[in-house]
């Protein structure tokens, strides 16, 4: 298709437009964050309907225009079915997506964050990994990728086990990031480190986090 490009992408946000269309925000490997319109995606039977839901991952064919981009075709690779059927996990994923919408930019190299999001969503689907641990790891590693992480002085001193966990989060390849377990005490330390880091580096109020906290309460 003329003027169309194929992008490896994850749907961060999907919103209705008009009667049948959707506006979709994608995090792509090739072009960073990009917004596009999916014409007719809310019409029953439209092949774009499922692929434009949040958390979908695949190859998205985009036709670039002077003022907007149009989504014309999708080859869906992962639907994250288990994640979207678990309300708590879906709330965590929405929070991760909101952070990614905040920190990513168009035409930036966001491949590391795309891989982190993909592996984090997979971890949320795993019954072996506590969602609280996934969140702490995601938050810390995001700040690491953004080049702003340093251990907050507010959390010192922390245990040797917590220090070892932080080193793993800083240094491990993303594909092996969620391959460790910690005690409840160490998890609490990681949560405090992550919370201070996010607030100091981003300083933003995330609506999806408020929804998550209300759910957990």
Structure description:
The protein has 217 residues and is an alpha+beta fold. The chain contains seven helices and five strands; from the N terminus they run E-E-E-E-E-H-H-H-H-H-H-H. Strand 2 (21-28) and strand 3 form a beta hairpin. The longest helix is centred in the last third of the chain and has 18 residues, at 184-201. The termini are far apart. The mean pLDDT is 94.
Summarize the structure.
A 5-stranded antiparallel beta sheet has the order 3-2-1-4-5.
Helix content: 40-55%
The pLDDT mean sits at 94
Q: Helix tally?
A: 7
Instruction: Give the biggest sheet.
Output: 5 strands, antiparallel
Total beta strands: 5
Query: Hey, roughly how much beta strand do the residues contain?
Result: 15-25%
What is the 3D form?
elongated
Strand order, sheet with most strands: 3-2-1-4-5
Structural class: alpha+beta
Q: Would you identify the regions where 5 or more consecutive residues have pLDDT less than 50? A: none
How far is the N terminus from the C terminus?
50 Å
Radius of gyration: 18 Å
Summary keywords:
single chain; 217 residues; alpha+beta; five-stranded antiparallel beta sheet; 7 helices; 5 strands; elongated
Question: Which helices and strands occur, and which strands form pairs?
Answer:
Elements: E1 4-17, E2 21-28, E3 32-38, E4 57-64, E5 69-78, H1 81-84, H2 87-103, H3 111-125, H4 131-145, H5 160-171, H6 184-201, H7 207-216
Antiparallel strand pairs: 1-2, 1-4, 2-3, 4-5
């Amino acid at each position: 298709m003329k003027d169309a490009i194929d992008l490896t992408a994850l749907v961060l946000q999907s919103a209705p437009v008009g009667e049948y269309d959707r506006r979709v925000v994608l995090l792509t490997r090739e072009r960073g964050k990009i917004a596009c319109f999916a014409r007719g995606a809310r019409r029953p039977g439209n092949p774009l309907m499922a692929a434009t839901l949040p958390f979908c991952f695949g190859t998205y064919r985009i036709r670039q225009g002077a003022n907007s981009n149009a989504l014309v075709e999708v080859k869906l690779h992962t639907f994250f079915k288990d994640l979207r059927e678990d309300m708590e996990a879906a709330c965590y994923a929405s929070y991760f997506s909101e952070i990614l919408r905040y920190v990513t930019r168009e035409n930036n190299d966001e491949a590391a964050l795309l891989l982190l999001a993909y592996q984090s969503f997979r971890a949320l689907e795993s019954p072996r990994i506590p969602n609280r641990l996934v969140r702490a790891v995601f938050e810390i590693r995001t700040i690491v990728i953004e080049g702003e992480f340093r251990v907050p002085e507010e959390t010192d001193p922390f245990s040797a086990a917590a220090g070892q966990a932080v080193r793993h989060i800083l240094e491990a390849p993303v594909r092996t990031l969620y391959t460790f377990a910690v005690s409840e005490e160490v998890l609490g330390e990681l949560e405090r480190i992550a919370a201070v880091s996010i607030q100091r580096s981003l300083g933003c109020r995330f609506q999806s986090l408020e929804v998550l906290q209300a759910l957990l309460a």
